[in-house]
Amino acid sequence: MGKLTTHVLDTMNGCPAAGMALSLYRMDGAAPQLLKQLELNDDGRADQPLLADAALLPGRYRLVFGVLTYFRGRGVALPEPAFLDEVPLDFGIADTALHYHVPLLVSPWSYATYRGS
What CATH architecture is 3-113? Predict the structure, then answer.
């Protein structure tokens, strides 16, 4: 069965983004539906898949990463307002039998993502 996972790497410090806040929303319907909120583990990952098996439905989703709070928590001096605050990533799940891995590479000034494996 399929699953949804994520992994965040802090490219400024060259390490996993341990402790970063993450929210997962389902975007189908009038308003986003919050499915899950958590903090990433020491490896910059959720301890369990974000969605798996019967909970993984086709549709539009959004991951929201707490980038500003994470970097300020590491003692990074950032201007007010900071360039990045929360980073939302919108994506679609079409085939629930597949693994959808959504990594984030992030610094206080940039981010990149892709569909991983």
Answer: Sandwich (2.60)
